[in-house]
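Fold this sequence, please.
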Amino acid sequence: MRILAISDVPAKKYYDFYEPGCLDGFDLILACGDLRRSYLEFLVTMAHCPLVYVRGNHDDEYLKAPPEGCVCAEDEIVIVNGVRILGLGGSYRYRDGECMYTERQMLRRIRRLRWKLRRSGGFDILLTHAPARGLNDFDTLSHRGFDCFNQLLDKYSPKYFIHGHIHLSYGPHIPQRVQRGDTCVINAFDHCEIDY
């Protein structure tokens, strides 16, 4: 399966410089948040494949008007072509906002999923906006990752952990891909193409 992962800014290749057919090779689009509704709707229309998303810390408007034609994976396990995708959007709480959480609140969200996780036998892709603590995050409160994501990775060993929030433009040494055990961790800032 060919996957396009996107986050934080529209990918010029697939939007500003879009050419008909350039999205035809993808079987799935995964959106990690902080993207305009119109951009997601454009992609799902042109790609002719499912687009699964989670909300970013700047996506409060999705609560009133979610992107049409797209599948919200918040607090769900969405299955596409047999691939189980667990969605946990939002960032670490650094100000008021609907899509920001404390560590305790995120852990509570994960605990509420235990029966879904048991029924599905785990998941193959963890789709989030924020990174895990100590894994592609920063020490600043606004870009801190969640410790509970590390616990999910250790317990279920998914094939991929795909997140956004940490812009690659923040510095020259921010990796797009790292490995944690059996899990490939991908920062989907702008876009990243994945062969599953």
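The chain has a mean pLDDT of 95. The longest helix spans residues 37-47.
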